[in-house]
Design brief:
DNA-binding transcription factor activity; Arc Repressor Mutant, subunit A; HTH_ArsR_DNA-bd_dom; single chain; alpha+beta; three-stranded antiparallel β-sheet
Amino acid sequence: MAKYDSDLSLLFHALSDPTRRALLTRLAAGPAPVTELAAPTGLRLPTVMRHLSVLEEAGLIATSKDGRVRSCAIVPEALAPVRTWLDEQRNIWESRLDRLDSYVMKIMEERAK
């Protein structure tokens, strides 16, 4: 059984929801107050706050409070473990496909003889 990184699981869980991905996309343009983030979703503020707490728990965003205004900012370096894992998976599958290609070419050459 493969060893799973709990942080990686948190990241993938956070990224699994389209609303959370939309919030991250918006935050990629710059920090924003929670009310601004909630407006285009059509969701109630407590629901958006739950989504933001999942993103914050995964380390994808940081929140701050100035008076009564809570703002969020993206933490881009938090995606590094996801990028690393995906790169490893891509390398594994490219290697497998290269070996399969070599095997198929070898069989085709043998049949051509």
